[in-house]
Amino acid sequence: MGTLSARKDIPPWVKVPEDLKDPEVCQVQTRLLEAIFGPGGARIPYIEQVSKVMLELKVLESSDLTEVVVYGSYLYKLRTKWMLQSMAEWHRQRQERGMLKLAEAMSALELGPWMK
Question: Which parts of the sequence belong to the KH-like RNA-binding domain (predicted)?
Fold first, then answer.
């Protein structure tokens, strides 16, 4: 999804400047971003509106992680951070299960020696 530029459009439910202080930060594997936020981040505005927060994504250059910065009132920030971490873990486990099923299916094929 790439790095998003600094936000200039602060949603009306975020109070300036108090909600912009002390954001909550969580790290998500970059490969899970599309599963969580939709293609090109299409679900970000919906998540922000429902959660009453503002999100900012920052791709970390030296790893496969992306920082998700959550701005808003204290309880909304914590709830949103917990929700995002839960979604990331669910998608990670789902992908892992899919890889295990694929490995099982491939071994179940028991390819003959001529196919190896």
Answer: 11-95
